[in-house]
Amino acid sequence: MKIKFLLTLLFFAGLSAAYGQKTVQLTKQYGSSNKDLQNLMNFENIYFEKLSFTGKAIRSKSYRVTLKEFTDGKLTDSAILFDGTESDFFKVQSDSLSVKFAFKLEEDQLKVQVFGAGFGSKKSYFPLKSSGDRYAMKDFFGSKDTLKQDPLKTNAVFAVITPTLHPDGSGSYCEVAQYDIAPEALGRHSKIPHYFVVYITFR
After folding, report:
1. Which of 28, 51, 98, 200 would you call most buried, defined as having the most Cβ atoms within 10 angstroms of its Cβ?
2. Phi-psi region of 179 (alpha: psi -120 to 50; beta: other; left: phi over 0)
């Protein structure tokens, strides 16, 4: 009986170790610690967030950052913000990686740039359906400080959204980190007229 119990423990320990090697831990650092600078960023509708990935599964991998645009619940456009698979220079050399994302919501367009170790992507621009003041950037952490992700899957990391429209004409910003709702379904589920989702994939 004891042998069977020990074998069961070893089996689940092995599964846990294998799962740990296939996942990465994701943490975030939002904005600036300088209050005056952060106030200025808020005033200018600038969002800046660093994502840190930790885990053996990303070593020697390259990564790609993409953006998808949704209008009235339907995919209307997609773009590559950064493609590290184009050169071995961008391969992850260790078990950790930090990627910084800058978003600026201007009057009629969204401006995005991605920063890695010693490089920055080209700036990308996307037209907005209404004033930039009506959009907000959200990540997918919800109330959590860390997330576990499978790096071989395409994972959503940010959403830039317009408010949910209510029958009385008011609006509110939904919590995008609803784990039973796919990012692609947010528009239909939460009645968001227009939004963008940013994804990262390791290869």
Report:
1. 200
2. alpha
Q: Residues 113, 114, 117, 118: what is their CA dihedral angle, to the nearest 10 degrees?
A: -20
145 φ/ψ angles, rounded to the nearest 5 degrees? -90, -25
Compute the Cα dihedral for 178, 28, 128, 201 and give only its sign. negative
**Rounded (5°) CA angle 84-41-123:** 30
- Give the residue carrying structure tokens 């600078």: 37
pLDDT in tens, 27-60: 999 999 999 999 999 999 999 999 999 999 999 9
Token pair in block for residue 96: 């950790």
Q: What is the pLDDT of residues 70-103, one digit of tens each?
A: 999 899 999 999 999 999 999 999 999 999 999 9
Write down the pTM of the prediction: 0.84
Burial class (CB in 10 A: 0-12, 13-18, 19+), 47: buried
Q: Where are the domains of the chain?
A: 24-202
CA-CA distance, 43 to 136, in Å (whole number)? Answer: 13
